[in-house]
Amino acid sequence: MPITERFRPKILPSLLGTLLGGLLVLATSAQARELVDMKGRTVAVPDQVDKVLTTAPPTMPLVYVLDPARLTAMNFAVKAQDVPYFSPLVQDLPVIGRYLGDGPLPQREAVLAAGPELGIAWDNRFVDADGVEKTFVELGIPGLYVRVEHLADYPEALALVGRAIGREARAAELGAYIEEAIAEVTRAVADVPPGERPRVYFAEGPNGLISECAGAFHAEAIVLAGGENVLVCEQKALCGLESVTLDQVRALDPDLILIQSPKFYAAIQQDPAWADLQAVREGRFYQVPTTPFNWMGRPPSFMRALAIQWLANRFYPERFPWDREAETRTFYQLFLGVEPSDAQLAEVLAGS
User: Fold this and answer.
1) Coil, helix or strand for 179?
2) What's one Pfam family here (predicted)?
3) Distance CA 254, CA 199 (A)
4) Residue 108: which pLDDT band, with cuts at 50, 70 and 90?
5) Which of 245, 218, 215 is nearest to 230 (CA)?
6) Is the dihedral of CA 104, 106, 109, 112 positive or negative?
7) Which segments of 251-347 are extended strands (E)?
8) Residue 313: which of 263, 266, 262, 349 has the closest Cα?
9) CB–CB of 189/226 below 8 Å?
10) 351: left (phi over 0), alpha (psi -120 to 50) or beta
């Protein structure tokens, strides 16, 4: 049975609870609770948290999917084509960008005016945790650290933030979906011998000559879905985005190419410089969906639970049969609270 079939009956109640919860004004208590975050810190959190500050792009979707009404700012702007997939509650919020503790907090006055009661920070080796913590102290709010670069961490991160903002049931429902998606894909591909796994090149940038190292969290979905990322290197910066040459790609000659840029997806079909690659000759190149959050992980989010199913089906259609349109629509209903029309769905999935 498709994963989303088991979650479909819960979609509308959970969405209704999320929307109503964001609009109701509840009585508050001065008493605080103690929560242990994903860095192992014990943090006193107010009993009632209505306003949350997220400090980095990966933490914003985490709070958004639980309750968009709790956000006080956005870490990136909503693109025009993505507006139909975002709640009106967030579309006029200030955009503060990425804050990793390295310097002053962007849009500080706007953040203060919003009155956040809790901060959610990214626990990552490239983040200056001391700097972020100092900012939380200056704002007079507690902060929780979450790890979200790996999809397997996401259910725990959802549960932690769900407890903090009173959305435990919603967090449990979404976490269960993610765990089941990982389990089903793993069962389907676990016994594929290494030599029979598709060798995949992840083409980023307008010319396809930026990529991610094997092991980098931005391309984790490839491995989770049973593929092999052909670019062997070590991620040296938070953003990844390793430069490669066309000669390197030719030497690697991948079985399949995933393409981030719509411009390059259009170009690869006509560029003779790429025409002799096996993946291009065989038509095994696919556009990565990015609406409203990138499926692969820029930023890393819950969308990867959908990406690993899409990729497993592309890599092993017989091992992992999957109705791309139906499952994508139901995922969007469950996680985003929207039901794409047929035309919207065709646009989201174009080239994939």
Assistant:
1) helix
2) Peripla_BP_2
3) 5
4) confident
5) 215
6) negative
7) 256-259, 285-287
8) 349
9) yes
10) left
Task: Say if residue 8's pLDDT is above 70.
Answer: no
User: Using omega within 30 degrees of 0 as the cis cutoff, is the peptide bond preceding 194 cis?
Assistant: no
Q: pLDDT above 90 covers what percent of the chain?
A: 79
Residue 291 DSSP code: S
Cβ neighbours, 10 Å, residue 247: 8
Helix (H, G, I), strand (E, B) or coil at 120: strand
pLDDT tens-digit map of 116-170 = 999 999 999 889 999 999 999 999 999 999 999 999 999 999 999 999 999 999 9
What residues pair up with 245 in beta bridges, in sequence order? Answer: none
Nearest CA among 327, 204, 199, 332 for reference residue 264: 204
Q: Count, in order, helices (H) and strands (E) of the chain.
A: 14, 11
Average pLDDT over all residues of the chain: 91
CA 327 to chain centroid: 17
At 120 the pLDDT is: 97
Residue 172: partners with Cβ closer than 8 Å, 6 or more residues away: 158, 159, 162
Distance of CA 24 to the CA centre of its chain: 28
* Calpha distance 94→91 (Å, rounded): 9
Question: Which domains are present in the chain?
Answer: 3-181 (3.40.50.1980), 194-321 (3.40.50.1980)
Beta bridge partners of 119: 53, 143
DSSP bridge pairs for 144: 120
Contact yes or no for 286/257 (Cβ under 8 A): yes
